[in-house]
Design a protein that fits this description.
With about 130 residues, the protein is mostly helical. The chain has a single domain, classed as Nucleotidyltransferases  domain 2 (Four Helix Bundle (Hemerythrin (Met), subunit A)), CATH 1.20.120. Helix content is about 65%, strand content about 0%. It has five helices and no strands. Helix 2 runs parallel beside helix 3. The protein is globular.
Length: about 130
């Protein structure tokens, strides 16, 4: 396990988190798609930090539940995050293309989810 690589994943996750927070503060409705995207990206990068910490090469995928599957073999307690992560997964790809638009309510939900997930996962990264 490369502690430096774990820290890089965390740094990137935190950049997404700060971006999401700033856009949330400015206007939830105006930046709903981007808030949801950054919430998904923050979760994805935290999961990849954990994979790296556990000595597992993170795959180049964006499905949060698939990343979680790899982690629960090492740490079954992470399973409690599955429903939250399943809600975030679509915002990493589906909402990045024309035809799908996140609402302010969805952005608020993503914001709340990532606040909880980030707190949960940070307990395991320490």
């Amino acid at each position: 396990m490369s502690e430096k690589l774990v820290e890089e994943w965390i740094s990137k996750a935190e950049e997404d988190f700060r971006s999401m927070e700033e856009l949330y503060r400015i206007s939830v409705s105006e930046f709903a798609n981007t808030i949801c995207f950054h919430a998904q990206q923050c979760a994805e990068k935290y999961l990849k930090a954990l994979l790296t910490k556990y000595g597992i090469e993170p795959p180049w995928i964006h499905t949060l539940e698939a990343l979680l599957d790899l982690l629960t073999e090492k740490n079954p307690a992470l399973e409690e995050n599955r429903s939250m992560l399943a809600q975030l997964t679509p915002y990493g790809t589906e909402y990045r293309y024309p035809g799908k638009f996140a609402t302010a309510e969805e952005a608020e939900d993503c914001y709340d989810i990532i606040i909880r997930f980030r707190k949960n996962v940070q307990e395991f990264i320490k």
